[in-house]
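Protocol step 4 of 6: structure prediction from sequence.
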Amino acid sequence: MSKSATMIYKPYKTARYVPYSLPNFASNGDILNTVDMCKYLVHIISSTDDDNPDIIRQMGLLYDRTTMLIRKFSKYDINVKLCLFRA
């Protein structure tokens, strides 16, 4: 299994309408998968240069952290919670 993949950047507005037929790429004799979206250095990159998948993922992580702070520090003063949230 290879960690490498091929991503072809498409024009944002025409990506839905224009069919692309491109050759397969190979590395060391192995054909690389062509993907529309991949995770690179903790960010999600899309072939249409759309940031929405990464923004949605980051929002979910923010909700998780907020819920954890509320649960662990429920007995503390609101000012302490706000300070922890901002940190």
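Step 5 (inspection) to follow. The helical segments are 52-72, 78-86.
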